Amino acid sequence: MAARAVGRLRRLKPFNRLQVILQHLKMSKHTDLTGEVLLEKKGGAGIITLNRPKALNALNHSMIQQIYPQIKTWEQDPETFLIIIKGTGGKAFCAGGDIRAITDAGKAGDRLAQDFFRGEYTLNNAIGTCRKPYVALIDGITMGGGVGLSVHGHFRVATEKTLFAMPETAIGLFPDVGGGYFLPRLSGKMGYYLALTGFRLKGRDVLKAGIATHFVESEKLPALEKDLIALKSPSKENIADLLNSYHVKSKVDQEKNFVLDEHMEKINSLFSADSMEEIVKKLKQDGSPFATKQLEKGHDFYEGVRAVLVDKDHSPRWKPAALEEVSDEFVDNCFKPLGNNDLKL
User: Fold this and answer.
1) 77, 120, 176, 225: which is the annotated catalytic residue?
2) 162: pLDDT strictly greater than 90
3) What number is the average pLDDT over the span 225-241?
4) Is the peptide bond before 133 cis (omega within 30 degrees of 0)?
5) Distance, CA of 306 to CA of 99 (rounded, Å)
6) Whether 168 is catalytic
7) Which residue of the set 46, 87, 97, 198 is catalytic?
8) Could you point out which of 147, 203, 265, 270 has its C-alpha 20 to 30 Å from the C-alpha of 23?
C-alpha cells in the first residue's frame, strides 16, 4: 500500500506533489472542533463537516475559503478516494448562504457580497467537476447555498429529516448556486415550479423529485459514514453499491405518494410558458385554488432580505413594483458582461 502511494506521488507534478504532502501533514494534526468548518482525513475519505449549528450551518465566505482549496487538494491526493460532506447539530445540513451578512455588506459598499458569490459559484463548479466521488449527507434543512454544496456532487443522501427548497425568489434573488442548470433537468416543469415558488420538499419526496440519489434513515447515517470510510480504494460503483444497500433497507414513508403527484398535470401545463408574464396569465386564467396560491410571490434582493429576514414584516416594496414594469432592457442589464470581473472557471 505504501509503495503504491509513493508511486502515485511520483507521477504527480512537483507543485501538486508538494500540495499533497503538506495536506497530509496538516491533516495529521488535531482537528479544531470549534471551527466553522471541520476538515478531516479518515482512512481514504476526506470529510467536510459544516459546523455552525446555531446558524443552521449557513455558509459564509470564510467557510468557502476553507472548503474550496481542500476539495482541490483532495482531488489531487492519490490516497483520498472519496469526499463526504455533512452538517452538525441535527437540524440542518446547510440552510443556505449567510445572506444577512452579505446584504449588510452590500448596502455598505463592502466587497464581501461580490467576493462571497464569486467564491460560492467557484466552489459549486469545483464540486460539479470533482474527479473524486463526492457524497453529500443532506440530513435536515438543505436550502439555497446548501443545495449548491450537495446537488452538483455524485451522490446526495436524503433522510426523513431533509427539508429542501430553493427559496431565493422570496428574497428577490434568482435561483442561484447552479439552479438554472439542475432545476430545468427535473421531470416535466417541476424545476420551474420549485424555482418560482420556493416550494419545500420533505424527506423521501426529495428523492422522488430527483434531487437526492438515495434515501437513508437519519439514525443510520453514522453507520453509513463508517462503512464509506472503511471502503478500500473505492470506485463510484463500489460507493453506489454501498449506498444502494442502505437505501433498499430504508422503509420510512416508502408507501407515501409523491407530494406533487396530484398537481403535476397542472404544473406541467401552467409552468410551460416561455415568459413570466405568460405563466402569470395562465395561473390567473386557471383560477383553481392551486393556481391562485402560486400567484403570491415576487422579487428584489436587498428589499426581500429586509422584509423576510431583517424587519420580518413580510411586506417587501419591490423595485420595479410590478411584473409589468420589468422591461426587456432591465432584464438585459442584469445579464450584461462584467468585463474583467466576469467569473472565470
Assistant:
1) 176
2) yes
3) 94
4) no
5) 10
6) yes
7) 97
8) 147
CA 185 to chain centre: 15
176 is catalytic: yes
Q: Work out the pLDDT band at 24, boundaries 50, 70, 90.
A: low
Q: Let me know if 327 is exposed, middle or buried by CB neighbors in 10 A (0-12, 13-18, 19+).
A: exposed
Q: Do residues 177 and 211 touch, judged by C-beta distance below 8 A?
A: no
pLDDT greater at residue 340 or residue 243: 243
Across-strand partners of 50?
37, 87
Catalytic site residue from 145, 178, 191, 304: 145
pTM of the full predicted structure?
Answer: 0.83
pLDDT band at 29 (very low <50, low <70, confident <90, very high): very low
Q: What is the pLDDT of residues 135-157, one digit of tens each?
A: 999 999 999 999 999 999 999 99
pLDDT in tens, 239-289: 999 999 999 999 999 889 999 999 999 999 999 988 888 998 999 999 999
Q: Is 73 left (phi over 0), alpha (psi -120 to 50) or beta?
A: alpha
Measured distance CA(177)–CA(64) in Å, rounded:
13
Strand, coil or helix: what is 163?
strand
Mean pLDDT of all residues belonging to the chain: 86
Rama region for 327: left / alpha / beta (φ>0; ψ in -120 to 50; rest): beta
Cell (9 digits) for 292: 391562485
Distance in angstroms (rounded) separating the CA atoms of residues 97 and 54? 14
Q: Which of 120, 139, 168, 300 is catalytic?
A: 168
Among 147, 179, 121, which Cα is nearest to 342's? Answer: 121
For the question of residue 97 being annotated catalytic, the response is yes
Burial 54-72 (b: 16+ CB within 10 A, else e): ebbbbbbbebbeebbebbe
